[in-house]
């Protein structure tokens, strides 16, 4: 239990093709849940997002120990492998993805709808939030800023 927030301690670790969620019980770590999925992992308030084992679908889970991180929805986000996923620096419930399809796509976590998509001309290796949207590091060595 976090003494400042009175919220149970929870940690996430990615092993093989599973996301292991552990928590603290009387100062011992115990497995709270296992999500069948893979990296990247993104946590936003009431959502935990990871990819399916093939790396092409976004799995959106409820961020709740009580529900054992119930799967809320799965989005077919790409026909090719997704390498990167991130959110924004604000309170908006969106996630960005990018990968081998050369696109950075923006998704609504509440509805699962694609909001926008931009072809960046090269494989997306990494995404990071910025004050104006997201920054994408591409396989051709370029870095691009995509407005939110």
- In whole angstroms, the N-to-C terminal distance is 36 Å
CATH topology: Methylamine Dehydrogenase, Chain H
Uncertain segments of ≥5 residues (pLDDT<50)?
A: 1-7
- Content of β-strand: over 45%
- CATH structural class: Mainly Beta
Helix content: under 10%
Average residue-wise pLDDT: 84
The name of the CATH architecture is 7 Propeller
**Quaternary status of these chains?**
single chain
In CATH terms, the superfamily is YVTN repeat-like/Quinoprotein amine dehydrogenase
- Supply the number of helical segments: 0
What does this protein structure show overall?
It is a single chain. The protein is mainly beta. It has one domain (37-147): Methylamine Dehydrogenase, Chain H. It is built from no helices and 14 strands. It is globular and about 45 Å long. It starts with 9 loop residues before the first strand and ends with a strand.
Quick description:
The protein is 0% helix and 59% strand.
Strand-helix topology:
Blueprint: E1 10-15, E2 18-25, E3 28-36, E4 38-44, E5 47-51, E6 57-62, E7 71-76, E8 82-86, E9 94-99, E10 103-108, E11 114-119, E12 124-130, E13 133-138, E14 143-147
Give the key terms.
148 residues; mainly beta; Methylamine Dehydrogenase, Chain H; 4-stranded antiparallel β-sheet; disordered N terminus
């Amino acid at each position: 239990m976090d003494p400042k927030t009175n919220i149970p301690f929870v940690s996430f670790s990615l092993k093989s093709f599973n996301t292991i969620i552990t928590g603290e019980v009387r100062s011992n770590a115990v497995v709270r849940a296992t999500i069948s999925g893979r990296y990247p992992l993104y946590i936003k308030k009431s959502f935990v997002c990871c990819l399916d084992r093939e790396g092409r679908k976004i799995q959106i889970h409820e961020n709740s120990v009580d529900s054992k991180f119930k799967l809320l929805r799965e989005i077919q986000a790409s026909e090719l492998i997704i390498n990167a996923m991130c959110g924004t620096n604000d309170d908006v419930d969106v996630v960005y993805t990018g990968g081998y399809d050369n696109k950075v796509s923006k998704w609504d976590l509440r509805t699962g709808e694609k909001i926008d998509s931009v072809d960046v001309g090269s494989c997306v290796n990494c995404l990071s939030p910025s004050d104006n949207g997201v920054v994408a590091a591409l396989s051709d060595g370029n870095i691009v800023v995509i407005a939110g």
